[in-house]
Specification:
- With 363 residues, the chain is α/β, with parallel strands linked by helices.
- The chain has 2 domains: 1-150 and 291-363, Isopropylmalate Dehydrogenase (3-Layer(aba) Sandwich), CATH 3.40.718.10; 153-285, 3-Layer(aba) Sandwich (Isopropylmalate Dehydrogenase).
- The chain has helices spanning 19-26, 30-35, 44-53, 93-111, 138-146, 172-178, 181-197, 224-239, 249-254, 269-280, 315-339, and strands spanning 6-11, 36-42, 61-63, 75-78, 117-120, 153-157, 162-165, 206-209, 243-247, 263-266, 285-289, 294-298, 345-346, 357-358.
- Strand 8, helix 8 and strand 9 form a beta-alpha-beta unit.
- The chain is globular and about 60 Å long.
- The two termini are 33 Å apart.
Length: 363
């Protein structure tokens, strides 16, 4: 933090998409510069090109390193040693390299403690592939770079709905074999802890979705519910992780049953994201739970179809910044609350007095 404000690192994403547009629109609002100190990882030349193309008035200052960030300004760290050709709406190897350069610099600076939270603008997952990046997406890349051996969990969320995924970027043909009792339990535990620590939910209630239509229909449409998901839920309940289900996904979302839970654990990408985006596309946020770093991103892609036209909506990026700041503060409060737990207090049965007994904390 600097001057009491959270330092927000922001990678520019695919330079042929809407990343710069939504960044410049958002931080053209003076209130955002009062809330945090933003640091873009990108290119001043590319940012200027986007600004002129869409006639945006947002100013920024170029700094050599994140620790030189100026309070009250939109700061930009130059990560690209060469000029980059901008071709709005087109995926290219050049735009992929530019996206990776920003990510690499951001990861390096995070390890040095130069910013507090990370917000990533959208990348093109195909264009960025190559030496240095062989991952299905941001989540897996960040897990390897700064995860410290911990497992990431993708959560799509807004103010009323949080959807986490057991499997993320997998082809459908590989999903069923990846749904194991152990996988469901691992992801549910990470989700549970994230709800407590990152979102300040004291006793989280998690709904677990079925894999098959109609929750397997008694085994007629699949046995994963009986053999994998239900046993996982039972084991989790014994651990004090309160999970319910498995619920058939169509009826669960159609009947708005999600309103009764603090989080929803879906089995695969489109099962969770399709209904989520239908309900929360304009203000949705992608949050990576389970890792030391606080990382969010807007819940939309590169939007090539409208890139360079000035039509992109910055609302999702705004929520991504808000969420990153809220999670950072919630973690601070959680850590402070549990840093020095009170010793357990109890009355010994054999003691006839009402005197309070103190017992040393358990190791």
């Amino acid at each position: 933090m600097k001057n009491g404000k959270i330092l927000v690192g922001i990678t520019h994403g695919d330079v042929n998409g809407v990343g710069y547009e939504v960044i410049l629109k958002l931080f053209g609002e003076p209130a955002m510069l009062e809330l945090c100190i933003p640091i873009i990882y990108g290119s001043p030349k590319v940012a200027t090109y986007h600004r002129k193309a869409m006639d945006l008035g947002t100013n920024f200052v170029t700094v050599q390193k994140a620790d030189e960030a100026v309070d009250g300004k939109l700061n930009l760290v130059d990560c690209l040693p060469e000029e980059v050709k901008i071709d709005f709406g087109q995926a290219s190897a050049e735009s992929g390299k530019a996206a990776l350069a920003a990510l690499e610099r951001a990861m390096s600076d995070y390890k040095e403690g130069l910013f507090d939270v990370l917000v990533t603008a959208p990348i093109n997952k195909a264009a960025i592939q190559g030496e240095g990046f062989h991952f299905p997406g941001h989540t897996e890349y960040i897990q390897e770079r700064v995860g410290g051996g911990r497992e990431a969990l993708m959560i799509l969320m807004n103010e009323t709905l949080r959807v986490a995924l057991v499997t993320t970027h997998l082809p459908i043909r590989e999903v069923a074999q990846a749904i194991t009792k152990e996988a469901v339990m691992r992801k549910a535990r990470i989700f549970y802890e994230a709800l407590r620590k990152d979102f300040n939910v004291a006793n989280p209630r998690i709904a677990v979705l079925a894999l098959n239509p109609h929750a397997g229909d008694g085994g007629l449409l699949g046995t994963e519910e009986k053999e994998v998901i239900a046993p996982a839920i039972q084991e989790l309940e014994k651990e004090g992780v309160f999970c319910f289900g498995p619920y058939a996904a169509d009826g669960f979302f159609g009947n708005r049953t999600y309103e009764y839970f603090d989080g929803v654990l879906a089995m695969y990408h489109d099962q969770g994201l399709a209904p989520f985006k239908a309900l929360a596309m304009s203000d949705g946020v992608n949050y990576t739970a389970g890792l030391p770093i606080v990382r969010t991103s807007p819940d939309h892609g590169t939007a090539y179809d409208i890139a360079g036209q000035g039509k992109a909506d910055e609302a999702s990026l705004r929520q991504a910044v808000y969420t990153a700041i809220d999670v950072f503060r919630n973690r601070q409060r959680y850590d402070e609350a549990y840093a020095r737990p009170l010793r357990k207090q109890y009355h010994e049965r054999r003691d006839d007095s009402d005197k309070l007994k103190l017992n040393a904390p358990e190791e």
